[in-house]
Amino acid sequence: MTKEPSAIGDQRRSQLLRGVLDLCLLSLIAERPRYGFEFVAALADNGLDLVSEGSIYPLLSRLERDGAISSYRAPSASGGAPRKYYRLTDAGRAELTNGRAVWRAFSGQVGQILTGTGLTGESES
Which pTM value belongs to this model? Predict the structure, then answer.
């Protein structure tokens, strides 16, 4: 039994995203402090709708343990329970800067291969 092309594409997108989701979160936090659900909405707004809150919170916890982000509680604008917001630390800014450089180099190299411009010894048919 073969998988539908869209299912295979979603699986590949999920695998690719897993490798860079921490950088996406750091980049979103660099824009402004955010709380959990805002990450899911911002990622979906940017076409990354495969991400659920269930995958965000463990990653935020790891980033906080690693010292890349810190958190604080602030009242909810809707009057509900206080929300836990995340902000970048200096270590998080450095990690984001480094991660962006690694991503640019990596995605450029992969792009060359996938478009055939990095191939040697073979012509495209």
Answer: 0.82
Q: Could you tell me where the beta strands, DSSP code E, fall in 1-125?
A: 34-35, 69-74, 83-88
pLDDT band at 125 (very low <50, low <70, confident <90, very high): very low
Compute CA distances 32 → 12, 19, 26, whole Å: 30, 23, 10
Sequence-separated (6 or more) residues with CB below 8 Å from residue 8: none
State the Cα–Cα distance between residues 96 and 114, nearest whole angstrom: 26
Per-residue pLDDT reduced to its tens digit, 50-62: 888 888 999 999 9
Indicate the residue type of 39: F
- Exposed / middle / buried, residue 46 (Cβ in 10 Å: 0-12, 13-18, 19+): exposed
